[in-house]
Write a structure and sequence with these properties.
homodimer, about 400 residues, alpha+beta, Beta Polymerase, domain 2, Poly(a)-polymerase, middle domain, Alpha-Beta Plaits, 13 helices, globular
């Protein structure tokens, strides 16, 4: 708000800056007291430390107590740096560039990479501002971003620390911080391809994508049949935790499913969250494995080689035999069907904590069998995914 | 024969050693002339240079002209070294060790790793002799071999050159030569596991394996049905070339099939050669792929990204979408069935030369459909493979 680069419906953050002579406890308590006196309907919330969240004149307002340090690299609490960011942008972003920032933010929002929160893993507002300061204009940011390679290292001035991140933008107020640390490879790549595409053919849909085209149940069932793949829905009750806890666990859990179900050859995955459920969707090349499987044993010289021979000598369907320097047998498979296989594997495999706790309430079904219970807009996006600007 | 370490039915090699003052041509012509005068029924053959092969008193005899060089490392033709090997073994193998060599050779023959020829890729007679010279006895060779690791480097005395081979045994008459260069990782590993097994429980079947148990057609068909895998036979007319040319090409061609058919998930392969055919056998997890396939595009920043978007924007079944830093689409698959898929792929893929030439005569069929034309002993070994000593 102070920087004049907000989109419509902005959130307003107000910082109350304390001298470092206050103790942490006093700073927090006094800060909240002051905050409650100006926003009595606010409710207390907690990130690294407490703040008060409320609504004033229709705007969401956070009032955040912090320290007024001399140097942002000497911050005491996590939010002490933010006022320096505001200062930096006010000093370095020219008036005519404010609309360039707004364009960039709207573009990022349209393609789904705006926001540093865990759900998005994208570009913060401050990062958008720095990109415009660095490159001058919205179009110039896109021109550069369309060429960003696997590792991109940006700064304003003298550089700074090295980070193992797809995108690094050294914070001009603290050279040991990467402003783009939240940006995933996926979000960075999406921004790169969207930039190229926009430069090729600018369209309003980059800023305001059309909604996903919702297919009817009948069409979806016919498509599943035609593809000869197997699609499954894995449904959990929604854990009651904040998004920044929930989404990393969703992603970890999806990776676990993909890894467990490797042999069924996952083709595509998707998830969505509604009021009461988290729904994982997987399309796989098959849901049934042969009766016989290859089973790897130890290297021939290993002390367990003899034990392996003993175990399988008479029980293998084929072998033991040697490939390279290892023993193998082909043996009967215990769990041939995807559902059995997953349930068995989950006994020994930890999902994200909140999902691990709720394993007992997990439901796994063929997509076609639970389609009536699912949200057809999300199922349509899963089966017919297109970039938002292509819809 | 000269070394006294032969098994029954040995081959006899006779070397005619010429002074290096003879030209190569004279050495070869005079050598063959002398050879023909003592073995008039022999026929001329050719390895690196010509020799005369015949049968004398029921023994196969090769008469080989070569040079008598002072130092085997200064050999002029490839066979000049052999008489030095004979000399070395005669001088270094004690009388009571000759039977140890015979045991070792018979053991290797029984488990299928005796012979340096391309068909076997195993241990030459000379290598067996050196192993007994090094370790003292048959049992001692087995004790050491059962512990051989991924790379094994052996020598008698001062070592020699380094080789990138699973097994190296420096030739005591030429430290720049690896006597074990023909030994494949497979043969070495087989010898290692057989050694461990024999030490655990010595059995006559290591030397004299029982024949493969031949299954009836009915039993084989039931087994194929039960496994839920797909087995195919690929049949070529037998190329009219010597074994040392044929077998490397068979192995190369099998690797090509495995690589082409990766998506069908090969479980096991086997081949056999009869009087008129080479038969490749493959058991795979499936022979049909889904209608939809994942198709990898360029990285998002690549100059071809735009072209990829253009090509697939409206034609993909799903996407384009981004994974990591790359574009992908899920698109229709053209060749879903194994047979079509292989035939299509072979248009762009070179097999071993002799098989490449005969692609037009290639027959590929489900195993069950050509079972009546195939050798049930080999099919039985393919489907129910066991180590020879385990039969």
């Amino acid at each position: 708000m102070a920087k004049g680069t907000f989109l419509k419906d902005p959130d307003i953050d107000v910082f109350i800056r304390f001298s470092p002579s206050y103790s942490r406890k006093d700073m927090e308590n006094l800060g909240l007291e002051i905050a409650r006196s100006v926003m009595p309907d606010g409710y207390e919330s907690y990130a690294e430390h407490p703040y008060l969240r409320g609504v004033v004149n229709g705007f969401r307002v956070d009032i955040v107590p912090c320290y007024m340090v001399d140097d942002p690299s000497k911050k005491i609490s996590a939010v002490d740096r933010t006022p320096f960011h505001t200062e930096y942008v006010k000093e370095n972003l020219r008036d005519e560039q404010k609309d360039e920032v707004r364009l960039l933010k709207a573009f990022m929002k349209g393609i789904g990479v705006y926001g540093a929160e865990a759900r998005v893993e994208g570009f913060s507002g401050y990062l958008c501002e720095l990109l415009v300061i660095k490159y001058g204009s919205f179009m110039s940011v896109l021109k550069h971003a369309s060429q960003w390679k696997k590792r991109t290292y940006l700064h304003l001035g003298n550089g700074g620390a090295r980070f193992n991140a797809p995108l690094t933008f050294i914070d001009p107020v603290d050279s040991n911080r990467n402003v783009a640390s939240a940006v995933s490879e996926q979000s960075k790549s999406l921004f790169t391809i969207a930039s190229r595409e926009f430069l090729q053919e600018p369209k309003l849909t980059f800023f305001f994508p059309n909604p996903v085209k919702v297919r009817e149940e009948k069409e979806i069932l016919a498509e599943i049949e035609k593809r000869k793949t197997r699609s499954y829905a894995i449904i959990f009750p929604k854990p009651d935790v904040v998004d920044d806890v929930l989404y990393p666990q969703i992603k970890r859990t999806m990776r676990a499913f993909e890894s467990i179900l490797q042999e069924f050859i996952p083709l595509h995955t998707f998830y969505y969250v509604d009021d009461s459920h988290v729904v994982f969707l997987l399309e796989l090349e098959r849901d049934e494995l042969p009766h016989i499987m290859k089973h790897q044993g130890p290297p021939v010289w290993h002390e367990n080689a003899e034990k392996f021979m003993e175990r399988w000598r008479n029980e293998a369907l084929r072998g033991p035999y040697v490939l390279g320097n290892r023993l193998y047998v082909d043996r009967e498979r215990k769990h041939r069907y995807l559902k059995d296989y997953l349930i068995k594997a989950l006994q020994a495999y930890a999902l994200g904590k909140e999902f691990e706790k709720r394993k007992g309430d997990m439901l796994i079904e063929k997509l076609e069998d639970v389609l009536h219970r699912l949200d057809l807009k999300n199922i349509s996006e899963f089966l017919y995914f297109k970039f938002p600007w292509e819809r």
